Amino acid sequence: MEEGASQDASSFCFRSIIVKRILVYVDGFNFYYGLFGLDKKKAARPNSEKWIDIAALARMTAAQIWQSESQFEIVQLRYCTSQPLFDARDPGQIQRHQQLMNAIGSLLNTKVVYGSFVERQKNARLYAPSKNVSDKHSEYFDLAACGKAARAVIAADVQKHGVMGHTYEPDWPGKGKRSHPATQSSSIRVSMREEKGSDVNLAAYLVRDSLRESFDGALVFSNDSDLADAITLAREESGQAIWVISPHFRNRAVLSGNPYSRQGALVNAASGICVIDVNLLARCQFPLIVHNADGAVVARRPKEWK
């Protein structure tokens, strides 16, 4: 009996120190806006949770997925993001973002991978929901025909979204008559900012690392269905489990296997998908002051996030 008990104890100790090696990939802006972006129906997470230690969050999430006595070592963590452009409405945004990137960059086996933001001016058609068409379509404004109320809505929207000016296309054919929404062509000139490269960088590193690295599982923090093919290739080539962790905690529909949904491709590509456990966020915060391995200060928590 004593010998058997000793064997059981040694076996348990052996199992308890098994280290599971994981790769972690974060689609930075998808992750941030999924948690902290505005939503009409449900509140975003509080600013006090924005100082996220993504490595700690990844290890706790891995422990929830692979429920065992294993410990989790991050072999490689790639945080894909871009430097935001200056915004007069929030001049401190660039500095806050840089402080967070400095903190994340100080983590062991971590690399911050940068894409870029571009700003372009484009023509965009004005639209409004119509009672005369189905909910799946939009009806475009004809500026010459719309009344004062509609023009007031347009003016408010222009002010809210910082539209840079107006250009008007010729009146649509059949003016004054019932016409198909697509034939209405009034437009305005808008300034649009687009983040480029993060999803491509994440996909490229995911496929490359799945061929080069020795690992037991991977986590992809994103809700971008454009990553589906890269996840499928990485999973097939490596033979390891690759899980998608959706930061869109307010949308449980991402767990649906419906192939026609936007996330259906992700559901089918990954070994598994789950919505981020927001209860972990408060437990996965960097200290107020972050030091690197040499003891030097590399980042300080922004006052707006305290």
Architecture overview:
With 306 residues, the chain is α/β, with parallel strands linked by helices. Helices cover 31% and strands 23% of the residues. Helix 6 runs parallel beside helix 7 (228-238). The chain starts with a helix and ends in a 6-residue tail after the last strand. Residues 9-15, 133-143, 146-151 and 158-185 have low confidence and may be disordered.
Strand order of the largest sheet: 3-2-1-8-9-10
* Number of discrete domains: 2
Averaged pLDDT:
78
The SSE order reads: HEHHEHEEEEHEHEHEHEEE
Uncertain regions spanning at least 5 consecutive residues: 9-15, 133-143, 146-151, 158-185
**Percentage of helical residues?**
25-40%
Number of strands: 12
Q: What's the CATH architecture of the largest domain?
A: 3-Layer(aba) Sandwich
Binned strand content: 15-25%
Might you state the CATH topology name of the largest domain?
Rossmann fold
Structural class: alpha/beta
Q: What is the first-to-last residue Cα distance?
A: 56 Å
Shape: globular
CATH superfamily membership of the largest domain: 5'-nuclease
Name the CATH class of the largest domain: Alpha Beta
Brief summary:
The protein is an alpha/beta fold. It contains eight helices and twelve strands.
Helix-strand blueprint:
Elements: H1 2-16, E1 19-27, H2 28-36, H3 54-65, E2 71-81, H4 93-105, E3 110-114, E4 116-125, E5 127-128, E6 139-140, H5 148-161, E7 187-196, H6 198-212, E8 217-221, H7 228-238, E9 241-246, H8 264-269, E10 272-275, E11 289-291, E12 297-300
Parallel strand pairs: 1-2, 1-8, 2-3, 8-9, 9-10
Antiparallel strand pairs: 4-7, 5-6, 11-12
